[in-house]
Protein backbone atom coordinates (compact mmCIF):
# COMPACT_ATOMS: atom_id res chain seq x y z
CA UNK A 1 0.00 0.00 0.00
CA UNK A 2 2.89 2.37 0.68
CA UNK A 3 4.76 1.86 -2.61
CA UNK A 4 2.26 3.69 -4.90
CA UNK A 5 2.14 6.72 -2.61
CA UNK A 6 5.91 6.87 -2.38
CA UNK A 7 6.15 6.67 -6.18
CA UNK A 8 3.57 9.42 -6.64
CA UNK A 9 5.34 11.77 -4.17
CA UNK A 10 8.74 11.16 -5.73
CA UNK A 11 7.37 11.79 -9.21
CA UNK A 12 5.60 14.92 -8.04
CA UNK A 13 8.73 16.45 -6.55
CA UNK A 14 10.69 15.57 -9.67
CA UNK A 15 8.12 17.22 -11.98
CA UNK A 16 8.01 20.28 -9.71
CA UNK A 17 11.79 20.60 -9.80
CA UNK A 18 11.83 20.29 -13.61
CA UNK A 19 9.10 22.90 -13.86
CA UNK A 20 10.89 25.31 -11.56
CA UNK A 21 14.11 24.91 -13.47
CA UNK A 22 12.41 26.42 -16.48
CA UNK A 23 11.42 29.58 -14.61
CA UNK A 24 14.41 31.79 -15.45
CA UNK A 25 13.42 35.41 -16.09
CA UNK A 26 12.96 36.55 -19.66
CA UNK A 27 13.44 39.95 -21.26
CA UNK A 28 11.73 41.64 -24.19
CA UNK A 29 13.70 43.18 -26.97
CA UNK A 30 13.97 46.90 -26.56
CA UNK A 31 13.23 46.77 -22.82
CA UNK A 32 15.75 46.88 -19.99
CA UNK A 33 15.34 44.36 -17.27
CA UNK A 34 13.21 41.23 -16.86
CA UNK A 35 9.56 41.35 -17.79
CA UNK A 36 6.81 41.72 -15.26
CA UNK A 37 5.12 38.50 -16.37
CA UNK A 38 8.26 36.42 -15.74
CA UNK A 39 8.79 37.97 -12.31
CA UNK A 40 5.15 37.46 -11.43
CA UNK A 41 5.65 33.74 -12.00
CA UNK A 42 8.38 33.82 -9.34
CA UNK A 43 6.20 35.93 -7.00
CA UNK A 44 3.44 33.35 -7.19
CA UNK A 45 5.83 30.74 -5.75
CA UNK A 46 6.78 32.75 -2.64
CA UNK A 47 5.85 29.85 -0.37
CA UNK A 48 8.49 27.53 -1.87
CA UNK A 49 12.17 27.67 -0.94
CA UNK A 50 13.95 28.91 -4.11
CA UNK A 51 16.12 25.89 -4.80
CA UNK A 52 16.15 23.81 -7.98
CA UNK A 53 17.18 20.76 -5.98
CA UNK A 54 15.43 20.79 -2.62
CA UNK A 55 18.04 18.48 -1.15
CA UNK A 56 20.57 21.33 -1.42
CA UNK A 57 20.32 23.85 1.44
CA UNK A 58 20.04 27.57 0.87
CA UNK A 59 23.22 29.36 1.98
CA UNK A 60 22.48 32.52 3.98
CA UNK A 61 25.23 34.98 4.85
CA UNK A 62 24.81 37.29 7.84
CA UNK A 63 26.60 40.43 8.95
CA UNK A 64 25.59 43.29 11.20
CA UNK A 65 26.84 46.63 12.46
CA UNK A 66 26.23 47.63 16.06
CA UNK A 67 25.06 51.22 15.68
CA UNK A 68 23.99 52.12 19.22
CA UNK A 69 23.44 50.75 22.70
CA UNK A 70 20.03 52.14 23.62
CA UNK A 71 19.78 50.88 27.17
CA UNK A 72 21.06 48.44 29.77
CA UNK A 73 18.56 47.38 32.42
CA UNK A 74 20.49 45.62 35.18
CA UNK A 75 17.40 44.81 37.22
CA UNK A 76 15.63 42.89 34.42
CA UNK A 77 18.90 41.73 32.77
CA UNK A 78 17.92 43.18 29.38
CA UNK A 79 20.13 44.80 26.75
CA UNK A 80 18.58 47.06 24.09
CA UNK A 81 20.65 47.67 20.97
CA UNK A 82 20.17 49.01 17.46
CA UNK A 83 21.65 46.92 14.64
CA UNK A 84 22.08 47.34 10.93
CA UNK A 85 21.51 43.78 9.77
CA UNK A 86 22.44 42.55 6.29
CA UNK A 87 21.36 39.18 4.86
CA UNK A 88 22.57 37.52 1.66
CA UNK A 89 21.08 34.42 0.03
CA UNK A 90 20.75 32.90 -3.45
CA UNK A 91 17.40 32.80 -5.24
CA UNK A 92 17.89 30.29 -8.02
CA UNK A 93 14.75 31.40 -9.93
CA UNK A 94 15.63 35.13 -10.13
CA UNK A 95 18.28 34.71 -12.80
CA UNK A 96 18.47 36.53 -16.13
CA UNK A 97 20.92 37.28 -18.88
CA UNK A 98 22.20 40.81 -18.36
CA UNK A 99 23.28 41.16 -22.00
CA UNK A 100 19.81 40.25 -23.24
CA UNK A 101 18.17 42.61 -20.74
CA UNK A 102 19.87 45.84 -21.73
CA UNK A 103 22.86 45.42 -19.41
CA UNK A 104 20.75 45.49 -16.25
CA UNK A 105 22.63 43.60 -13.55
CA UNK A 106 20.70 44.60 -10.41
CA UNK A 107 17.12 45.50 -9.60
CA UNK A 108 15.13 46.20 -6.43
CA UNK A 109 12.07 44.11 -5.63
CA UNK A 110 9.54 44.21 -2.77
CA UNK A 111 10.58 41.89 0.02
CA UNK A 112 7.01 40.80 0.72
CA UNK A 113 6.87 39.14 -2.74
CA UNK A 114 9.94 36.95 -2.20
CA UNK A 115 10.92 34.03 -0.04
CA UNK A 116 12.98 35.25 2.92
CA UNK A 117 14.92 33.03 5.34
CA UNK A 118 13.30 33.07 8.79
CA UNK A 119 16.38 34.27 10.66
CA UNK A 120 15.76 35.31 14.26
CA UNK A 121 17.83 36.14 17.33
CA UNK A 122 17.32 33.48 19.96
CA UNK A 123 17.87 35.92 22.86
CA UNK A 124 15.12 38.34 21.85
CA UNK A 125 12.53 39.09 24.58
CA UNK A 126 10.42 41.79 22.93
CA UNK A 127 8.95 42.63 19.54
CA UNK A 128 10.94 44.62 17.03
CA UNK A 129 9.38 48.07 16.61
CA UNK A 130 11.95 49.46 14.18
CA UNK A 131 11.11 50.59 10.67
CA UNK A 132 11.29 47.77 8.13
CA UNK A 133 12.98 48.14 4.75
CA UNK A 134 10.37 47.10 2.13
CA UNK A 135 12.81 46.33 -0.71
CA UNK A 136 15.72 44.04 -1.47
CA UNK A 137 18.43 44.18 -4.11
CA UNK A 138 18.54 41.26 -6.58
CA UNK A 139 21.58 40.57 -8.75
CA UNK A 140 21.25 39.02 -12.23
CA UNK A 141 22.95 35.90 -10.85
CA UNK A 142 20.12 35.46 -8.31
CA UNK A 143 21.99 36.75 -5.23
CA UNK A 144 19.78 38.85 -2.94
CA UNK A 145 20.88 41.46 -0.40
CA UNK A 146 18.45 42.60 2.28
CA UNK A 147 19.37 45.47 4.56
CA UNK A 148 17.19 45.97 7.59
CA UNK A 149 17.25 48.00 10.79
CA UNK A 150 16.74 45.96 13.94
CA UNK A 151 15.92 47.25 17.39
CA UNK A 152 16.95 44.25 19.42
CA UNK A 153 15.75 43.77 22.99
CA UNK A 154 17.67 40.73 24.18
CA UNK A 155 18.37 38.92 27.42
CA UNK A 156 21.91 39.21 28.72
CA UNK A 157 23.66 38.12 31.89
CA UNK A 158 24.82 41.53 33.13
CA UNK A 159 27.62 41.62 35.71
CA UNK A 160 27.46 44.84 37.75
CA UNK A 161 29.91 44.00 40.53
CA UNK A 162 32.61 46.30 39.12
CA UNK A 163 30.22 49.18 38.32
CA UNK A 164 31.02 51.82 37.00
CA UNK A 165 34.09 50.13 35.51
CA UNK A 166 32.12 47.11 34.31
CA UNK A 167 32.56 45.24 31.03
CA UNK A 168 29.56 43.35 29.65
CA UNK A 169 29.71 40.36 27.32
CA UNK A 170 26.37 39.68 25.62
CA UNK A 171 25.63 37.08 22.96
CA UNK A 172 23.49 37.39 19.82
CA UNK A 173 22.60 33.97 18.39
CA UNK A 174 21.27 34.08 14.82
CA UNK A 175 19.50 31.05 13.44
CA UNK A 176 16.49 29.85 11.52
CA UNK A 177 13.28 29.43 13.46
CA UNK A 178 11.86 26.52 11.41
CA UNK A 179 14.33 25.37 8.74
CA UNK A 180 16.85 22.80 9.86
CA UNK A 181 20.42 22.40 8.71
CA UNK A 182 19.20 20.44 5.68
CA UNK A 183 17.29 23.46 4.36
CA UNK A 184 19.19 26.58 5.51
CA UNK A 185 22.89 26.97 6.28
CA UNK A 186 24.34 30.09 7.92
CA UNK A 187 27.75 31.64 7.40
CA UNK A 188 29.13 35.09 8.32
CA UNK A 189 29.23 37.51 5.41
CA UNK A 190 32.22 39.39 6.84
CA UNK A 191 34.98 38.43 9.21
CA UNK A 192 34.42 39.18 12.86
CA UNK A 193 37.28 41.73 12.82
CA UNK A 194 35.60 43.64 9.97
CA UNK A 195 32.25 43.69 11.77
CA UNK A 196 33.95 44.89 14.94
CA UNK A 197 35.81 47.65 13.08
CA UNK A 198 32.66 48.86 11.30
CA UNK A 199 30.74 48.95 14.57
CA UNK A 200 33.44 50.93 16.38
CA UNK A 201 33.20 53.70 13.78
CA UNK A 202 29.56 54.35 14.65
CA UNK A 203 29.57 53.50 18.34
CA UNK A 204 32.77 55.35 19.22
CA UNK A 205 31.15 58.69 20.04
CA UNK A 206 27.65 57.68 21.06
CA UNK A 207 26.21 57.19 24.50
CA UNK A 208 27.51 55.71 27.70
CA UNK A 209 29.01 52.53 26.26
CA UNK A 210 31.95 51.84 24.00
CA UNK A 211 32.56 48.73 21.96
CA UNK A 212 35.55 46.60 22.92
CA UNK A 213 35.27 43.73 20.47
CA UNK A 214 32.94 41.48 18.48
CA UNK A 215 33.81 37.85 18.02
CA UNK A 216 31.81 34.74 17.30
CA UNK A 217 31.59 31.19 16.03
CA UNK A 218 29.35 28.94 13.98
CA UNK A 219 27.87 25.84 15.54
CA UNK A 220 25.04 23.36 15.29
CA UNK A 221 22.11 23.36 17.68
CA UNK A 222 20.68 19.91 18.33
CA UNK A 223 17.15 19.35 19.59
CA UNK A 224 16.03 15.76 19.40
CA UNK A 225 16.66 14.39 15.94
CA UNK A 226 16.73 17.85 14.29
CA UNK A 227 19.72 20.14 13.91
CA UNK A 228 19.86 23.87 13.26
CA UNK A 229 22.76 25.86 11.93
CA UNK A 230 23.45 28.93 14.13
CA UNK A 231 25.96 31.77 14.38
CA UNK A 232 26.74 33.20 17.83
CA UNK A 233 28.19 36.69 18.11
CA UNK A 234 29.63 37.91 21.41
CA UNK A 235 29.49 41.68 21.78
CA UNK A 236 31.84 43.03 24.44
CA UNK A 237 30.98 46.56 25.59
CA UNK A 238 32.54 48.71 28.29
CA UNK A 239 30.91 51.50 30.28
CA UNK A 240 32.34 55.01 30.19
CA UNK A 241 32.82 55.76 33.94
CA UNK A 242 33.45 59.52 33.81
CA UNK A 243 29.88 60.47 34.74
CA UNK A 244 29.81 58.20 37.78
CA UNK A 245 33.31 59.11 38.92
CA UNK A 246 32.43 62.82 38.89
CA UNK A 247 28.98 62.45 40.45
CA UNK A 248 29.58 59.60 42.91
CA UNK A 249 33.18 58.78 43.74
CA UNK A 250 34.68 62.27 43.93
CA UNK A 251 31.96 63.78 46.22
CA UNK A 252 32.13 60.71 48.47
CA UNK A 253 35.91 61.00 48.64
CA UNK A 254 35.64 64.69 49.57
CA UNK A 255 33.26 63.90 52.42
CA UNK A 256 35.59 61.19 53.69
CA UNK A 257 38.50 63.65 53.50
CA UNK A 258 36.56 66.17 55.58
CA UNK A 259 35.82 63.43 58.11
CA UNK A 260 39.54 62.66 58.36
CA UNK A 261 40.48 66.33 58.76
CA UNK A 262 37.89 66.73 61.52
CA UNK A 263 40.25 64.78 63.82
CA UNK A 264 42.46 67.86 63.90
CA UNK A 265 39.76 69.81 65.70
CA UNK A 266 40.66 70.15 69.41
CA UNK A 267 38.29 67.80 71.25
CA UNK A 268 38.37 69.72 74.53
CA UNK A 269 37.29 73.09 73.13
CA UNK A 270 35.18 72.26 70.03
CA UNK A 271 32.08 70.07 69.84
CA UNK A 272 33.58 67.61 67.36
CA UNK A 273 30.70 65.15 67.79
CA UNK A 274 28.14 67.65 66.45
CA UNK A 275 30.33 68.29 63.42
CA UNK A 276 30.64 64.57 62.66
CA UNK A 277 26.90 64.00 63.11
CA UNK A 278 26.21 66.79 60.62
CA UNK A 279 28.69 65.18 58.22
CA UNK A 280 26.97 61.78 58.52
CA UNK A 281 23.60 63.40 57.88
CA UNK A 282 24.96 65.09 54.75
CA UNK A 283 26.45 61.82 53.51
CA UNK A 284 23.11 60.06 54.00
CA UNK A 285 21.32 62.74 51.99
CA UNK A 286 23.98 62.37 49.29
CA UNK A 287 23.31 58.62 49.06
CA UNK A 288 19.56 59.18 48.81
CA UNK A 289 19.98 61.67 45.99
CA UNK A 290 22.44 59.50 44.04
CA UNK A 291 20.50 56.27 44.55
CA UNK A 292 18.98 56.49 41.05
CA UNK A 293 22.41 56.34 39.44
CA UNK A 294 23.28 53.03 41.09
CA UNK A 295 22.25 49.83 39.31
CA UNK A 296 19.99 47.46 41.19
CA UNK A 297 19.69 43.74 40.65
CA UNK A 298 18.68 40.72 42.65
CA UNK A 299 21.83 38.80 41.63
CA UNK A 300 24.28 40.85 43.65
CA UNK A 301 25.44 44.20 44.94
CA UNK A 302 27.85 46.40 42.97
CA UNK A 303 31.21 47.16 44.47
CA UNK A 304 30.45 50.86 44.59
CA UNK A 305 27.45 50.15 46.83
CA UNK A 306 29.72 48.28 49.23
CA UNK A 307 32.12 51.21 49.02
CA UNK A 308 29.42 53.69 50.08
CA UNK A 309 28.23 51.44 52.90
CA UNK A 310 31.73 51.01 54.29
CA UNK A 311 32.36 54.77 54.03
CA UNK A 312 29.22 55.40 56.07
CA UNK A 313 30.32 52.76 58.59
CA UNK A 314 33.74 54.44 58.89
CA UNK A 315 32.06 57.77 59.59
CA UNK A 316 30.02 56.14 62.35
CA UNK A 317 33.20 54.62 63.79
CA UNK A 318 34.87 58.03 63.81
CA UNK A 319 31.84 59.43 65.65
CA UNK A 320 32.13 56.67 68.26
CA UNK A 321 35.82 57.50 68.64
CA UNK A 322 34.90 61.12 69.32
CA UNK A 323 32.36 60.02 71.92
CA UNK A 324 35.03 57.95 73.68
CA UNK A 325 37.55 60.81 73.71
CA UNK A 326 34.93 63.25 74.97
CA UNK A 327 34.07 60.88 77.79
CA UNK A 328 37.77 60.56 78.76
CA UNK A 329 38.30 64.31 78.73
CA UNK A 330 35.35 64.83 81.09
CA UNK A 331 36.35 62.06 83.48
CA UNK A 332 37.98 64.60 85.80
CA UNK A 333 34.59 66.16 86.50
CA UNK A 334 33.52 63.01 88.37
CA UNK A 335 34.58 64.13 91.86
CA UNK A 336 38.10 64.85 90.60
CA UNK A 337 38.84 61.19 90.11
CA UNK A 338 42.52 60.52 89.72
CA UNK A 339 44.06 58.73 86.75
CA UNK A 340 44.51 55.03 87.59
CA UNK A 341 48.03 53.71 87.81
CA UNK A 342 47.58 51.20 84.96
CA UNK A 343 46.31 54.00 82.71
CA UNK A 344 49.46 56.01 83.41
CA UNK A 345 51.70 53.04 82.64
CA UNK A 346 49.89 51.74 79.55
CA UNK A 347 48.66 54.94 77.93
CA UNK A 348 50.90 57.77 79.12
CA UNK A 349 54.08 55.71 78.89
CA UNK A 350 53.98 52.85 76.41
CA UNK A 351 51.28 53.96 73.95
CA UNK A 352 52.53 57.55 73.96
CA UNK A 353 56.03 56.34 73.15
CA UNK A 354 54.68 54.02 70.43
CA UNK A 355 52.76 56.76 68.59
CA UNK A 356 55.52 59.37 69.17
CA UNK A 357 53.24 61.65 71.13
CA UNK A 358 54.78 65.12 71.58
CA UNK A 359 54.57 66.16 75.21
CA UNK A 360 54.35 69.85 76.20
CA UNK A 361 57.60 71.60 77.04
CA UNK A 362 56.82 71.98 80.76
CA UNK A 363 56.38 68.18 80.99
CA UNK A 364 59.63 67.31 79.24
CA UNK A 365 61.95 69.48 81.33
CA UNK A 366 65.06 67.84 82.74
CA UNK A 367 64.75 66.35 86.20
CA UNK A 368 67.32 68.76 87.63
CA UNK A 369 65.41 71.81 86.50
CA UNK A 370 62.15 70.29 87.71
CA UNK A 371 63.80 69.56 91.08
CA UNK A 372 65.05 73.12 91.38
CA UNK A 373 61.59 74.34 90.55
CA UNK A 374 60.10 72.23 93.30
CA UNK A 375 62.74 73.57 95.74
CA UNK A 376 61.92 77.11 94.73
CA UNK A 377 58.27 76.42 95.35
CA UNK A 378 59.10 74.93 98.73
CA UNK A 379 61.35 77.81 99.78
CA UNK A 380 59.00 80.41 98.43
CA UNK A 381 56.79 81.72 101.29
CA UNK A 382 53.10 81.10 101.03
CA UNK A 383 51.07 84.33 100.92
CA UNK A 384 48.61 83.02 103.43
CA UNK A 385 51.36 81.92 105.80
CA UNK A 386 53.14 85.26 105.53
CA UNK A 387 49.92 87.04 106.42
CA UNK A 388 49.39 84.80 109.44
CA UNK A 389 52.89 85.28 110.88
CA UNK A 390 52.28 88.78 112.31
CA UNK A 391 49.11 87.51 113.93
CA UNK A 392 50.99 84.81 115.84
CA UNK A 393 52.98 87.43 117.75
CA UNK A 394 49.79 89.04 119.04
CA UNK A 395 48.93 85.96 121.03
CA UNK A 396 45.92 83.74 120.93
CA UNK A 397 44.04 85.77 123.42
CA UNK A 398 44.26 88.91 121.35
CA UNK A 399 43.27 87.11 118.18
CA UNK A 400 40.35 85.42 119.83
CA UNK A 401 39.22 88.63 121.50
CA UNK A 402 39.11 90.61 118.28
CA UNK A 403 36.23 89.42 116.00
CA UNK A 404 37.65 91.09 112.95
CA UNK A 405 40.95 89.23 113.22
CA UNK A 406 39.14 85.94 113.75
CA UNK A 407 37.08 86.52 110.60
CA UNK A 408 40.19 87.37 108.65
CA UNK A 409 41.82 84.10 109.73
CA UNK A 410 38.75 82.13 108.69
CA UNK A 411 38.62 83.81 105.29
CA UNK A 412 42.31 83.18 104.72
CA UNK A 413 41.87 79.50 105.59
CA UNK A 414 38.95 79.18 103.16
CA UNK A 415 40.94 80.91 100.44
CA UNK A 416 43.83 78.56 100.97
CA UNK A 417 41.56 75.52 100.79
CA UNK A 418 39.97 76.84 97.59
CA UNK A 419 43.33 77.46 95.99
CA UNK A 420 44.50 74.00 96.94
CA UNK A 421 41.38 72.38 95.42
CA UNK A 422 41.76 74.42 92.25
CA UNK A 423 45.38 73.36 91.96
CA UNK A 424 44.42 69.71 92.43
CA UNK A 425 41.63 70.03 89.86
CA UNK A 426 44.01 71.58 87.37
CA UNK A 427 46.52 68.79 87.83
CA UNK A 428 43.84 66.10 87.39
CA UNK A 429 42.37 67.86 84.39
CA UNK A 430 45.79 68.10 82.79
CA UNK A 431 46.41 64.39 83.36
CA UNK A 432 43.07 63.35 81.88
CA UNK A 433 43.62 65.70 78.92
CA UNK A 434 46.89 63.98 78.11
CA UNK A 435 45.20 60.57 78.40
CA UNK A 436 42.49 61.76 75.98
CA UNK A 437 45.05 63.22 73.57
CA UNK A 438 47.09 60.01 73.52
CA UNK A 439 43.98 57.93 72.84
CA UNK A 440 42.88 60.41 70.18
CA UNK A 441 46.25 60.13 68.43
CA UNK A 442 46.13 56.33 68.64
CA UNK A 443 42.59 55.96 67.33
CA UNK A 444 43.22 58.51 64.59
CA UNK A 445 46.19 56.52 63.29
CA UNK A 446 44.19 53.29 63.44
CA UNK A 447 41.40 55.05 61.51
CA UNK A 448 43.88 56.23 58.87
CA UNK A 449 45.24 52.70 58.58
CA UNK A 450 41.75 51.27 58.05
CA UNK A 451 40.91 53.85 55.39
CA UNK A 452 44.23 53.30 53.59
CA UNK A 453 43.80 49.51 53.52
CA UNK A 454 40.20 49.87 52.40
CA UNK A 455 41.12 52.29 49.60
CA UNK A 456 43.90 49.98 48.37
CA UNK A 457 41.55 46.99 48.29
CA UNK A 458 38.88 48.91 46.35
CA UNK A 459 41.40 50.30 43.85
CA UNK A 460 43.01 46.87 43.29
CA UNK A 461 39.65 45.19 42.73
CA UNK A 462 38.59 47.82 40.21
CA UNK A 463 41.94 47.60 38.40
CA UNK A 464 41.62 43.81 38.15
CA UNK A 465 38.16 44.10 36.61
CA UNK A 466 39.29 46.85 34.21
CA UNK A 467 42.20 44.74 32.97
CA UNK A 468 39.89 41.79 32.43
TrEMBL record:
Pfam families in UniProt: Neur_chan_LBD, Neur_chan_memb
Membrane topology (UniProt): Multi-pass membrane protein
The keyword Transcription regulation belongs to this UniProt entry's keyword annotation: no
Regions crossing the membrane: 242-265, 277-294, 306-329, 446-467
Swiss-Prot/TrEMBL keywords: Cell membrane, Disulfide bond, Glycoprotein, Ion channel, Ion transport, Ligand-gated ion channel, Membrane, Postsynaptic cell membrane, Receptor, Signal, Synapse, Transmembrane, Transmembrane helix, Transport
Domain Neurotransmitter-gated ion-channel ligand-binding: 47-241
Annotated Neurotransmitter-gated ion-channel transmembrane domain residues: 248-458
Catalytic activity: Ca(2+)(in) = Ca(2+)(out); Na(+)(in) = Na(+)(out); K(+)(in) = K(+)(out)
GO molecular function: extracellular ligand-gated monoatomic ion channel activity; transmembrane signaling receptor activity
Highest rank taxon of the organism: Eukaryota
Signal peptide: 1-23
A cellular-component GO term for this protein: postsynaptic membrane
Subcellular location field: Postsynaptic cell membrane
Main localization category: membrane
Annotated InterPro entries: 5HT3_rcpt, LGIC_TM_5-HT3, Neur_chan_lig-bd, Neur_chan_lig-bd_sf, Neur_channel, Neuro-gated_channel_TM_sf, Neuro_actylchol_rec, Neurotrans-gated_channel_TM
Family: Belongs to the ligand-gated ion channel (TC 1.A.9) family.
Function description: Forms serotonin (5-hydroxytryptamine/5-HT3)-activated cation-selective channel complexes, which when activated cause fast, depolarizing responses in neurons.
Protein name stated in the entry: 5-hydroxytryptamine receptor 3A-like
Species of origin: Oncorhynchus tshawytscha (Chinook salmon)
Gene name for this UniProt entry: LOC112253239
Amino acid sequence: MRQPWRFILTSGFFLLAVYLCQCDLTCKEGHSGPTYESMQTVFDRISFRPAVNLSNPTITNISFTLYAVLGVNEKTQILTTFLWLRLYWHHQFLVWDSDACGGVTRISLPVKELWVPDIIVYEFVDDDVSQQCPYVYVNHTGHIRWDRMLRLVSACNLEIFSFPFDVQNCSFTFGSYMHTIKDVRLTPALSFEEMSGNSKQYLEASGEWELVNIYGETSVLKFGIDEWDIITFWVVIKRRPVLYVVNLLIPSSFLMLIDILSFYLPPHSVDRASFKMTLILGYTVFLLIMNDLLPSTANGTPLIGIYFSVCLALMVISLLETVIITNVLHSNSKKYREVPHWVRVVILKHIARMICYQWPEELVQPSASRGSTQDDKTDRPNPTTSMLIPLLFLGPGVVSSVPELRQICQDLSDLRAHLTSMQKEGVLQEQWCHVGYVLDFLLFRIYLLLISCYAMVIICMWCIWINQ
